[in-house]
Structures are given as C-alpha cells and as structure tokens.
Task: structure prediction
Amino acid sequence: MEAVATRNSRKTLVGTVSSRSGDKTIKVTYSYKVPHPLYKKEIRRKTVVHAHDEKNECGFGDKVEIMETRPLSKLKRWRVTRVLEVAPKLGDEE
Result:
C-alpha cells in the first residue's frame, strides 16, 4: 500500500511589503477592521509579519500573498507564495 501525502490547509494572507530587512527576508503588513467594543465603530488595525522570500523578488510596496509554514528562523513563520501586484519604482517614467 502506498501512503498518500496530503498537505494540511494552511493560512494564507494578502499584504503589502513594508520592508526588505535582510537577505531573503521581507516584512509584510496586512490590515483588517474590528469593531470598537463599546462604540461599535470599525477601527483599522494592522499586523506586521516576517516572511521568507526565496528568490528575493519582492520590492517595497508590492502586494504579495503569503502562506503559513514551519518556523524558518526566530521570527519567520510565513513564506511568499506569489507576487500579486508590483509597485511602481521611483524614477520609472513610461
């Protein structure tokens, strides 16, 4: 009998690259809204996560999709699956 390897469903997020901290590492910021406990007005919140960028293809301001993964370092628990939208670079006149 063959054992079929199935991957568990993992969390995916869409966020914006806010920093390129080191080699193969980026910081991704994703925003969400939560209601205020008393006044019920929606408040914008954000979370910053460190993600692994294997090909060093992401730049500042790019919109990326990241997926949860095993711990890769002290802070990295996410990896880039794809770049959804490339941010325009300064000085690029078309």
About this structure: The chain has a mean pLDDT of 91. The chain has one domain: 12-85.
